[in-house]
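Researcher: I'd like a structural prediction for the single chain below. Treat it as a standalone chain; there are no partners to consider.
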Amino acid sequence: MTGSAEADAGALAGGGAVVSLGDGWESDEGGAGSGRRPEEGAAKGVVAAFGQSMKTLRLREGLDRAEFGNRIGYSAATVASFEQGRRIPSPRTIERADEVLRAEGLLCLWKEEVERAQYPVFFQGMAKLEKEAVELLSYDTLVVKGLLQTEEYMRALLGMRRPVLDPETIEQRVAARLARQDILSRWPAPLLSFVMDESVLRRPYGGKDVLRGQLEHLLLTGQRPNVEIQIMPLSCEESAGVDGPFTIVTRKDGKQFMYAEAQGTSALQTDPEQTTLAAARYGIIRSQTLTSRESLEFIEGLLGSL
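Model: Treating it as a single chain, here is the predicted structure.
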């Protein structure tokens, strides 16, 4: 699947098919896959062009990198990375830069394209669907969903990747994942449901301090009125989720998409019959788990045992 996120989503909306996202892509959840740098391919040109535009406007204002960086909250080295297309700024950073450089919206025109460039090309369609979701249902068995991860947990997962990721790529992945978490607080609030296996909460990726912070974050996030977190206990003798993790996204127009990934391969299922069955399967999974209240109490118990 190639092209822009709009093209990806448009193609998905029209048919009933499994859209393979290919082998060797880089999972945005921290999973398997050989991966690619976000600045490779078409994204490289977008990020480079934005960086050159920002540099031109900075020089027009007579600011050196250190002074400009101080005004937008970054070091001179980071500003250099932005301008050279080696690092991707957040939408808020672009807005601040536009204001400081008196660009009158010129830099803000790049926001959507630059934001898309944060993601591996094969995740761009899914990232766009998350931004359009009115409902998102997620079942996870290996790691905490990226939308719920703390920054420390993200860094721990990305640091375990093989082949090893360079520090700059890790920073880009962290920034992209944090940007996705806007779904938790945006308005109108989408309905978000997360089910995860108990084993996910017991594995101390990055050490006990990282796990403690992650569990505390889940407790806080689980108190949001539009978020439900449920745990599938290890003691459960039945599970409709034996085929593995998946995510179902529903858009405002009612169209549903099922996303699944495993060992460097992922796919978006768009067939209405299959997405309906997946939603039904998710309902069964939820019925087999602890309730939301019981799940939060369970997480509190795990915290107390660390």
